[in-house]
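Human: You know discrete backbone vocabularies at least as well as I do. Show me how you would write down a chain together with its backbone fold. No explanation is needed for now; the record alone will do.

Assistant:
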Amino acid sequence: MTKLFVEEKIVSYMKRKMINKLLEEKYEEVVSRAVKLKIIKREEWDNRFKNYRDEFGHSFVHYLECIMSKINFFLTINPIMLKNKKELEERFGVKILSPEEAIKEIGKKK
């Protein structure tokens, strides 16, 4: 390995770490706001919803953003969100759709 290659790998690693740290801070801001608005309890976040993460990020945090922004649907491929969608929809009032369901919904409206 060349010195330049190693330096590039180190820089790339540090950038990923910084991005992840910024994302975690943003997630915490959203969760704190949801707790303050009494949408969820901190214990629910710590014990349950914190685990609704997938390879694309933190789906439940994005769902909270939809709830707080009064957006009436949330599109996701997160298997945990889709598995629990009925319960989440009933509790929070924001519809959860898979991409396939969204395409069907669009087709119905044409």
Q: What stands out?
A: The chain has six helices and four strands. The CA atoms of residues 60 and 75 lie 11 Å apart. The longest helix spans residues 3-36. The mean pLDDT is 91.
